[in-house]
Design brief:
Blueprint (H helix, E strand, L loop, with lengths): L5 E3 L7 E2 L1 H6 L2 E2 L7 E5 L7 E7 L4 E2 L5 H15 L20 H5 L7
Parallel strand pairs: 1-4
Antiparallel strand pairs: 2-5, 3-6, 4-5
């Protein structure tokens, strides 16, 4: 296993970018391996780590097709549907609740 160079926050050399920076440029890593990483120190916790990729090896982002957009819309609609009352909540159902907020606030023993 090889180790990658570690740079301090804001001290990475030119030609390297994080995934978000690549996306802002309209690029994606395209299967390349991580070249380096950045560490941002924090108080009382471990450092934040961001992986860096070479910009010159990055590929353009694949265009959104109609079928891909339809699949994404269907997946997002499923995340908004409450499994208890089967209604569209209008927001993404919190995974901590597992149901929409009105269903979570209703006491379970109130069925009489």
């Amino acid at each position: 296993m090889t180790t990658v160079p570690v740079y301090r926050w804001r001290l990475a050399p030119d030609g390297l970018a994080t995934r978000r920076q690549l996306r802002a440029l309209g690029l994606r890593p395209g299967g390349q391996d991580v070249v380096a990483q950045i560490e941002r120190p924090r108080r009382r916790r471990g450092p934040l780590i961001a992986y860096l990729y070479r910009i010159d090896l990055a590929l353009p982002v694949r265009p959104m097709t109609a079928r891909r957009a339809a699949a994404l819309a269907k997946a997002n609609a499923a995340r908004r549907r409450c499994p208890t009352c089967r209604r569209d909540a209008g927001y993404v159902i919190p995974t901590s609740l597992g149901m929409c907020v009105p269903c979570a606030d209703t006491p379970r023993h109130a069925t009489a």
